[in-house]
Write a structure and sequence with these properties.
Pfam families: BPD_transp_1, OppC_N. This is Peptide/nickel transport system permease protein. Belongs to the binding-protein-dependent transport system permease family. OppBC subfamily. It is found in: Cell membrane. It comes from Lentibacter algarum. This protein is an all-alpha fold and 302 residues long. The protein has a single domain, classed as MetI-like fold. Helices cover 73% and strands 0% of the residues. It contains twelve helices and no strands. The protein starts with a helix and ends in a 6-residue tail after the last helix. The relative contact order is 0.13.
Amino acid sequence: MAEQTLRDWLLTDTPTSRRHAKLSALYQGWLSFRSNTMAMIGLGILVLLVFVAAAAPLLSPHDPFVQDLGNRLAPLGTEGHVFGTDSLGRDILSRLIYGARITLYIVALVALIAPVVGLLVGTVSGYAGGWVDIVLMRITDIFLAFPRLVLALAFVAALGAGIENAVLAISLTAWPPYARIARAETLTIRSSDYISAIQLQGAGALRIITKHIWPLCISSLIVRVTLDMAGIILAAAGLGFLGLGAQPPSPEWGAMISEGRRFILDHWWVATMPGLAIFTVSLAFNLLGDGLRDVLDPKAGE
């Protein structure tokens, strides 16, 4: 009965406070998201990925760095090595499990850097207008003129190989789309009546941008971030494949594919297993992004 009462309280059409309205909106959004089977599958895969990364020392059957040259290139299903071993006899399953940590590390850092930079540039450009808008958007156009992976390769070549530099390079190439989205949202919001009312009350540009424009841009950016995660993972894997990302013996999935490409015909599992891991996680982020778009799209109910 108490549970039913709480549900009714959350689903009411007449919230009694701002907090009540926010909780009601969150719950209704969750119900809408939960009804999307594919989005729930994507969320489940990502939750499993986080759990595997967090419990890697407990789940990993072997040390991912220990070599056993006497058992190199063992096939799938070998006793003690479910996914086989690589060219140095290291357990592929263990390296995949620890590689999940690197993937989440890259995704988290890029998701913290690129959208924030894009939001700042886009909202300032859209609200200020004039020469500020022209300068910031031309800089954005320069970044958009180059393919993301090519530009990331250039940054990594200048900064040096390594996972931190790879994250920085991917972030520097990922922010322009967010800036475009934030600017478009800001141009629409800037001409709203309530913004004019806030200006008449004496609110400054900084307060208007941070308190009244940013919150309205967040939902669009969240959807874009989740849909971009697949591209970010592939870019990180591409840098690792080329030897410019995480350095050996780090169990990064792209580097594992690079190592396994030499044996792709006779020992296909060495490159296929990390490739399937990248495919699965990328698909999960796309499914999650599609589900969030259906929930957060303000036109969905029209």
